[in-house]
Task: structure prediction
Amino acid sequence: MPTLRSRTRLDPAPEILIFDVDGVLVDVRESFWRSALETVRFLTGKRVTWAELYKWKSKPGNNDDWSMVSSWATALGRPTTYEQARDAFQRFYWDCDGRPGNVRRERMLVTPKQVERWARRFELNLFTGRTRREFTYTFERWASARHFRTVVTMDDVARKKPYPDGLLKILGGRNPETALYVGDNVDDGLAAQAAEVRFMAILPAGAYGYRQRAAQFRKLGALALLPRATAINAWLK
Result:
């Protein structure tokens, strides 16, 4: 499988760049992921670990943290519906009862200047598993958000990832070979595969379960494993 070191140029070069948000443009380890961990602890009373969280996140269908929490808590003996997981999760992610929410811990991974450079050459779009509210809270204060032509959240499609609906909506009937999708989750890869859109995966070398996740991405046809979103630049020259 090609890696960043090979510096292979994409052929044909993409005209459309589509980015996932969490783990690609925004560091969510201390927001969404910590909230998921704290929610499972709250629901089950068990001291679940970060290592367990990474294992659950690598399973298909768990791009949506509420789905993951529901399945995880249920597996630990505390039957939890999707709605119960969602409501409990909100207590930790958003400000609640005077307690600052974990959403305040998010930080951007890509600079405004980099986004501007991409925007000069490509059409930029976002396909995220966030709700519209979650997306707006983080991006309304980020000036670079104006460079993204279309933003598809989980509220904008009938079927969320791993279904390809968001990618197909962005393409609007255009040739999928003109696009490149950059994500960090197996559901991103599954969505890209179903939409026949080229895909690159964000997977830092020191990431937990690197070998297993790398194998998953290989099976899904990922063109490269990248340490960060800006590493696509080596492929776009």
Remarks:
- DSSP finds nine helices and eight strands in the chain.
- Residues 1-5 have pLDDT under 50 and may be disordered.
